[in-house]
Amino acid sequence: MRHDEPSPALRRAYEAEPETAEPSDALWGRTRNALAERGLLRRGRPSGPRWSVAAWMAAASFAGGILIGTLLDGGAADPGTSPEALDPILAAERAQAAATEYAIAVATLVRSLDAASAREMATGREVVRSASRAHAASARPLLAGASETLGESTAAGPAEDPVIWF
Amino acid sequence: MERPEPEASIPDDWTLAAKVAEDGDEAAFRALYDRHTPRLLRFALQVTGGAGRGLAEDVVQETWIRAVERLDAFERRSRLATWLHGIALNVAREAIRRAADEGCDPVEIADPARSVDPEGRIDLERALGRMPEGRRAVLVLHDLQGYTHAEIAETLGIAVGTSKSQLHDARNELERILTGGGMDDATR
């Protein structure tokens, strides 16, 4: 053995030492964010899981609107023979409008996903929460009124408490 | 007939680094990050002496920040990996000194259970943590990272002769610790 080489015991210890270590996912996220905050990195378009979240949100919103509309339209499809049937139809239209606004609010969040920073995400989410609460407050009595006429299932739509979607 | 050279499909470090420096290109940075971080993290674990992944990952994060800040000023005299390791070494030493100033030993706060095998042998990273910082750095750079004494001397700002003598002392000390002989002195 040459005098400038490690001993066999050390060599064994070195050989047992892995050359690499797997970094955590969190390390990538915080490193990228730290560089972006310093203006050293431009964020690319969101990709992978973030698009999946955006797609899920949009689909859920669309489905929610469809669900409300279907439930209410289904109940109102039988116009009935009494004048009271007009009220649930009006209620259904107004609830449908609320659901549409709700969908628009969700689209706001989806756009904020594009922006992608945690702060913008939080802002976007709060916008949707506020809008959802407002829509829920206005839609709930309408849905409750419609529910009495159309049946229990109407009140179970996502507009009953849209906030829980987030 | 002479065939054209196939176009390189994987950009080299300096092509990627230029994109990061000039455009802040995230995809280019991600490619650099994926290429170098696993080795950089192992190096950080070694030079922080097994103080744990938390501190080592902090070192790696700060290393990338400093590297990207200085990318445009860096000349292609050395390999990017070597340059990154030099930055990481400085960051790690600062972190260790900061911990010492605050009165806590980063090696002591590491989980001791993961460092000792059932027969009582200590693992290499923890053993490195029992060594003086200067010797540890020389040993890690030379024996584990393959630096020459001249490169170590330049990286650490010491004489080549100092690097050689520190390596000799570091190997003796590490062997003592690994075989149990140096544990008592080192841990007290």
Tell me the span between the first and last alpha carbons of chain B.
73 Å
- Cα shape of chain B: globular
The helix/strand order of chain B is: HHHHHHHHH
Beta-strand percentage of chain B?
A: under 5%
Spans of at least 5 consecutive residues with low confidence of chain B: 108-121, 183-188
Structure description:
The complex is a heterodimer of chains A (166) and B (188). By secondary structure, chain A is an all-alpha fold. In chain A, helix 3 packs antiparallel against helix 4 and helix 4 runs antiparallel to helix 5. Chain A is elongated. The C terminus of chain B is likely disordered. By secondary structure, chain B is mostly helical. Chain B has 9 helices and no strands.
Outline of the structure:
The complex is a heterodimer of chains A (166) and B (188). Chain A is mostly helical. Chain A has helices spanning 8-16, 25-37, 49-77, 86-115, 118-150.
